[in-house]
Amino acid sequence: MVSPLAAEVYELRTYHANEGKMEGLLARFRDHTTKIFESHGMKNIGYWLSEGDDPKLIYIISHKDRETAKKNWKAFVADPKWKSAQKASEVNGRLVKKVEKVFLTPTDFSKLK
């Protein structure tokens, strides 16, 4: 079995938007975040909205490995383009109230391998 620290990993993230802020969150991802992710080596796999009364933005990105994921996120949060996009999008309040994340390693029978 391959060590999860040394193999490509997928990161599943769930964003719980503050009330009335989902459209702003989607616009920020559409117009800025996904491009900034790519510039830091994060591959955009897919983005979804959950159904129901409390919609959530759920997405998967991939990284070369777990160590690279740490470096990617560190570079992302320090990026002036990200800081500017975040500040502009939150002029009327924070968009996100909670973020959940989990790292996933594909199985040997996954189509992602």
N-to-C terminal Cα separation, in Å? 14 Å
What Rg, in angstroms, do the CA atoms define? 15 Å
Strands, total number: 4
Task: Tell me roughly what share of residues is in helical segments.
Answer: 25-40%
Tally the helices: 3
Poorly predicted ranges: none
Looking at the overall shape, the CATH architecture is: 2-Layer Sandwich
The CATH topology annotation reads as Alpha-Beta Plaits
Shape: globular
Query: Largest sheet, order of strands side by side?
Result: 2-3-1-4
Strand content: 25-35%
Query: Into how many domains do the coordinates divide?
Result: 1
Query: What pattern of helices and strands is seen along the backbone?
Result: EHEEHHE
Instruction: Outline the biggest β-sheet.
Output: 4 strands, antiparallel
Structural class based on helices, strands and sheet pairing: alpha+beta
**Highest CATH level, the class:** Alpha Beta
Which terms would index this structure?
113 residues; Alpha-Beta Plaits; globular; alpha+beta; four-stranded antiparallel β-sheet
Describe this structure as you would to a colleague.
By secondary structure, this protein is an alpha+beta fold. It has a single domain, classed as 2-Layer Sandwich (Alpha-Beta Plaits). It has three helices and four strands; from the N terminus they run βαββααβ. A hairpin with a 6-residue loop joins strand 2 and strand 3.
Write the layout of secondary structure elements.
Layout: E1 9-17, H1 22-39, E2 43-49, E3 56-63, H2 66-78, H3 80-89, E4 96-104
Antiparallel strand pairs: 1-3, 1-4, 2-3
